[in-house]
Amino acid sequence: MPSRTDKKPTLRTISELSGLAVPTVSRALNDAPDIGQDTKARVREIASRIGYVPNRAGVRLRTGKTNVISLVLGTDNEVTDHTGQLVSSIARTLRDTRYHMIVTPYSPEKDPMIPVRYIVETGSADALILNRIEVADPRIDYLMKRSFPFVTYGRSKWREQHPYFDFDNGSFGRIAAVELARRGCQHITLLSPPIEQNYAHDMTFGARSALEELGITFEILQGISGDDPGEEIQAYVAQYLTEHTQCDGLICPSTTAAIAAVVGAERVNRVIGTDLHVFGKEAIPFLRHFRPAIGAAREDVRQAGEFLAKAAIQAIEQPGLPPRQNLVGAVLED
Amino acid sequence: MPSRTDKKPTLRTISELSGLAVPTVSRALNDAPDIGQDTKARVREIASRIGYVPNRAGVRLRTGKTNVISLVLGTDNEVTDHTGQLVSSIARTLRDTRYHMIVTPYSPEKDPMIPVRYIVETGSADALILNRIEVADPRIDYLMKRSFPFVTYGRSKWREQHPYFDFDNGSFGRIAAVELARRGCQHITLLSPPIEQNYAHDMTFGARSALEELGITFEILQGISGDDPGEEIQAYVAQYLTEHTQCDGLICPSTTAAIAAVVGAERVNRVIGTDLHVFGKEAIPFLRHFRPAIGAAREDVRQAGEFLAKAAIQAIEQPGLPPRQNLVGAVLED
DNA sequence: AGGAGAAACTATAACGTTATAGATTCTTCT
DNA sequence: AGAAGAATCTATAACGTTATAGTTTCTCCT
């Protein structure tokens, strides 16, 4: 329990306790060059003794620094598999920093610019973490033009110029294709991520080029994406497989999509691992429990969250440095 | 683009534009009784025309109100199934309010009081949303004693006195027991949630009392809980089933636990739906895709998030009202 | 006419922090 | 000895908001 007054200690408390002026205390705690070493030590001792913590509102009002990093989250139909892991790994990485994480939601079918503009214009965060990146994502363009710090989970066409973390969906596509080919598939189909999003192209390119080399037929499902509701994917895949009996391999961009696809395939009596081979992506090792024959590569979302948080801090505190980037290759499970 | 100065508009901007004093503008926007109707209208018109948004730091510094609600999230080994849904539904509910959501993580194996004390002592939120509630949760005791607004996802022994949302795990236990009995089980075992948490007792009680009525053997797995890592559950269940060949029904408190249990059971050659019946809980309808024979009840996490957010706001803005509470019964799927 | 009281505004100060300019003391150099 | 300069501190003001205590103007009553 605090000794002095029962109020929260402020710079003023330390000022009275030490006999120094308030600005001196402030500068001492911020390690300013014009404060004596012994003074700094004394002030710091008092501060930690009485449990002084800077008032965020005071700092924010005076400096404009919010000490907040905002995770901008699309929340339409179903939240993607890994949202929970992403949120918690970012929050955990920020725990021992001065930064708080706020979650700013938006409906992607409305205007994705709204939350971004809101945060920039009201100055309610020091940096943004963006998800579901499009090739020419207008949010990135907007933020770069204003040099507002941000990091993306996924790359854009301006990938050289901004910090990002990305899972290498090109290598995922390649690995999936090669693995399905190894299992004897001759007609491989891709359930693509939403084509607006950048990683759809990486994945498509990876799979296509690998299969061209191998001389295997490659097709992409039209009018459906891995982010669509499970029921729609089930119905679509069931229909597709009855019309395309030669299709013997299916690449899926997420766990939920792979499950839905398998359910659809089994509805039209395809046997996974025999009639039809399926390859998916997952954040936790699960698909082979679901159906042992499913192949999969792992995307480490916790690593992503940790990197994104650190990159955001760097973007805020060292805007001069080259953007921090990380592209993690896909690895076949087992 | 703003017309006046390129700076962000403040009360001062409106003051200059209208010729009124800054406090008058403030009071007009806050609908104070001593401001004329026409003045209020004029001020509001100017405010919306120039896109005035109150500066959060200014309000927070002056009033102490943060306009922040903090979700306190345990982030140990694996994040539970529904974290993503919970986060996004809370954030979405808060989107059209003045409140921001910040995520405060902690390691449950360390001291769960740390984040709570931090937020209360530094005043960095107006209300808390707590998860993983214990029967005599010290966080609840602490917050009630200080009359700091909060809501819990789960009940405590002080359930009468604080707002909560809870899935009725008693009815879940009962429904699971009855359903497994209907399928012919004679020896039913429960993989319990962590016994520290309140809902473990509800679930246990529900299952136990239903099975006593039916005269069916009931047992609880010792030394393991549904929150333990999947591999441990797998190993434990496999071992248990070899030692307890008579066990023919298994109740699991979550999706991941049910999956792990099934994997463990199949490892020792139990056939789900024949040798062993399994009942689980899930946030999205999935388990019966995994193994069609699994029975399940649904827990609607989006509903929880929405309620928790609204209850938090009420706890802040109308502390006099009786605590907002919601207990949602379990419903058998299909 | 004088005063009470209501209505509608303004002046001042304060929340906690830090940037800026200025003050004081002490060295050091010529 | 006197000046220049370094080292270390203080005074003031400002960020945007709102609570509190005025002030002014007008109406109404006797």
Verbal overview:
2 copies of one chain form a homodimer. Chain A is of the alpha/beta class. The first copy, chain A, has helices spanning 11-18, 22-29, 37-50, 56-63, 83-94, 113-122, 138-145, 169-182, 198-214, 230-243, 255-267, 287-290, 301-317, and strands at 68-74, 100-106, 127-130, 150-153, 164-167, 187-190, 217-220, 249-251, 277-282, 295-298, 325-328. In chain A, strands 2-1-3-4-5-11 form a 6-stranded parallel β-sheet, with helices on both faces. In chain A, strands 7-6-8-9-10 form a 5-stranded parallel β-sheet, sandwiched between helices. Chain A starts with 10 loop residues before the first helix and ends in a 6-residue tail after the last strand. At the A-B interface, helix 4, helix 5, strand 2 and helix 11 of A face helix 4, helix 5, strand 2 and helix 11 of B. Strand 2 of chain A pairs antiparallel with strand 2 (100-106) of chain B, so a sheet runs across the interface. Chain A binds a DNA duplex (30 and 30 nucleotides) through residues 10-12, 20-24, 26-27, 30, 34-36, 39, 54-55, 57-64.
